[in-house]
From TrEMBL:
Entries under PANTHER family matching the protein: PROTEIN CBG26694, PROTEIN NYNRIN-LIKE
UniProt cross-references to InterPro entries, sorted A to Z: Integrase_H2C2 (IPR041588), Retrovirus_Pol_polyprotein (IPR050951)
Source taxon at top rank: Eukaryota
Protein name: Integrase zinc-binding domain-containing protein
Protein's organism: Rotaria sordida
Residues in Integrase zinc-binding domain copies: 152-212
């Protein structure tokens, strides 16, 4: 699945020598406390005796020493580095992800397509007879929870199928059930389930890379004939 996601982007693999590629080393190592005799060892001590009556030591001032250790500095630096990487990654991929998420047609274009569709026009002209539909802002909506727009037969349907199944921003080649769940929350047309199923069946990357979830057929064994034959 990661391979399919990576294929969505135009990238180049660049080798970085280990000495100059210290960031993955930071991310793969947990900070380790220094030795006990380290001069920078952290001391956060409060003079307090659990075996002696507190009143006997009440006149003694508490000794508190807090020194930031090299381990703490390393943790702080690592967190800063991770934050910088996250910001850089987010900035560099933000444009591609947002483009994948956008549907390249507007509500006005969908309204126009509905007005040119005989099925939609029949419902719009007799809306009271069709309890499964409502009209909202001149847009024919299917009465679901929440209501979603009806998509007439057009390139809009193909675009929706492609975006919600093929693009990395929407999961990149999820199976039938997940793709149906994504689309039905946003759009509706009568043959939607059938169209989604056929689209996924014809998806070449899914056929090539999706693992088989059924056991391979077993080998046939000869059946012994009844005795006496």
């Amino acid at each position: 699945r990661w391979r399919l996601k990576i294929l969505e982007y135009d990238f180049k693999v660049k080798y970085i020598p280990g000495l100059t590629n210290s960031m993955p080393d930071y991310l793969s190592r947990s900070p380790v406390d220094d030795a006990e005799e380290d001069p920078d060892e952290s001391l956060h001590l409060i003079s307090k005796s659990t075996q002696t009556d507190i009143s006997n030591v009440s006149n003694h001032s508490s000794i508190v020493t807090a020194v930031q250790t090299r381990a703490m500095k390393l943790r702080h630096q690592t967190l800063n580095d991770i934050t910088d990487i996250s910001k850089l990654t987010s900035d560099s991929l933000n444009t591609s992800v947002e483009e994948n998420r956008k549907i390249p047609f507007s509500a006005e274009e969908l309204i126009q397509a509905q007005q040119n569709d005989n099925y939609a026009k029949n419902i719009l002209n007799n809306i009271k007879k069709h309890k499964n539909y409502i009209i909202k802002d001149n847009l024919l909506m299917h009465r679901s929870n929440p209501p979603v727009p009806y998509v007439p037969p057009s390139d809009f349907r193909k675009t929706i199928l492609r975006i919600y199944h093929d693009t990395a921003a929407n999961g990149a080649h999820f199976g039938r059930d997940k793709t149906i769940h994504k689309i039905k929350q946003r759009y509706f047309w009568p043959s939607m389930y059938k169209d989604i199923n056929n689209y996924i069946k014809s998806c070449i990357p899914c056929a090539q890379f999706n693992p088989r979830r059924q056991k391979n057929p077993g080998t046939l064994r000869p059946i012994k004939p009844p005795e006496g034959l």
